[in-house]
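Severity: low
Component: inverse-folding endpoint
Summary: output formatting inconsistent between runs
Steps to reproduce: submit the following structure tokens with default settings.
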């Protein structure tokens, strides 16, 4: 039996035939170059997408959110509505937003209700993730000079640098822990005031960001709430500031009258400063809720009437 031989291969292939004589090193280098270029392009796209996404703020986002938790069991509806009216008027003037939770919205685990101010601000930061500043103001306080904005009156870099209390005892008069002396205004994420006896948590401002989230979460630690501090969250705040350098590193203390003027002298020795005067930004009826000889609603009503009369004249 004979089998046909396969056709003999020609040594002159047609011009359209695939050639295997191409340099494999050249082809590999070309593929590597293409992969490198593609990788660079993807990195650039990622960086631009990330930066533009973080910088993009939705239209209509309020730059400042005013946070005031209310205890509707301790105050009348009329009193609460007056305070809300005061906040809403101020917010409308400057394009801000307000947040009015109840102190009973949060599980405080038997801690005093005044602790609710901490999760209330944290809650507001979650609801308004693109807002820059969160201004907590106690329910027993009024904004008396609504022409002053949070940005220009407090948080502007140059304004802060002109009023910051540097190398200043955190807890007066002689705490060994002092505020930093080298901080710039644009490095500040937390602004507080002191009265004659210590840090006052009734009026403070935080800037949106990881620092403020960490600060609020640390302040609200269950361990601090269980300590039964004499001034509850006030003493808890002083403890956190003094013993957590990370928090102190971005904190500014400013003069009390900038945003926390008191209606009465509440100091132990009667030598308190920071009492309210005409044209001050805020009046705070500090201590009225715990002093049985005082009446928060009556004290606030007198100044509310003054504010309302001035407000109507300007509109």
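Observed output (run 2 of 3):
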């Amino acid at each position: 039996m004979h089998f046909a031989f396969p056709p003999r291969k020609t040594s002159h292939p047609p011009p359209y035939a695939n050639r295997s004589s191409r340099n494999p090193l050249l082809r590999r280098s070309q593929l590597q170059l293409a992969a490198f270029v593609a990788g660079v392009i993807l990195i650039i796209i990622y960086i631009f997408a990330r930066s533009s996404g973080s910088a993009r703020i939705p239209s209509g986002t309020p730059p400042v959110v005013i946070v005031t938790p209310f205890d509707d069991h301790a105050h009348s509806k009329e009193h609460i509505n007056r305070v809300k009216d005061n906040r809403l008027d101020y917010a409308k003037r400057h394009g801000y937003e307000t947040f009015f939770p109840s102190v009973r919205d949060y599980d405080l685990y038997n801690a005093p209700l005044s602790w609710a101010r901490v999760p209330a601000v944290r809650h507001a930061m979650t609801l308004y993730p693109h807002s820059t500043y969160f201004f907590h103001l106690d329910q027993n306080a009024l904004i008396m000079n609504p022409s002053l904005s949070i940005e220009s009156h407090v948080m502007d870099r140059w304004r802060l640098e002109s009023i910051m209390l540097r190398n200043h005892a955190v807890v007066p008069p002689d705490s060994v822990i002092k505020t930093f002396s080298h901080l710039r205004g644009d490095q500040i994420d937390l602004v507080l005031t002191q009265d004659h006896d210590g840090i006052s948590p009734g009026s403070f401002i935080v800037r949106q960001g990881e620092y403020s989230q960490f600060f609020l979460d640390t302040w609200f630690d269950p361990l601090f709430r269980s300590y039964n501090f004499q001034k509850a969250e006030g003493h808890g705040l002083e403890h956190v500031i003094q013993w957590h350098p990370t928090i102190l590193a971005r904190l500014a203390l400013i003069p009390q009258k900038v945003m926390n003027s008191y209606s009465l002298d509440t100091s132990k020795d009667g030598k308190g400063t920071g009492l309210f005067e005409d044209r001050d930004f805020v009046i705070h009826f500090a201590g009225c809720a715990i002093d049985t000889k005082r009446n928060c609603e009556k004290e606030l009503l007198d100044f509310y009437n003054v504010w309302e009369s001035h407000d109507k004249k300007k509109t």
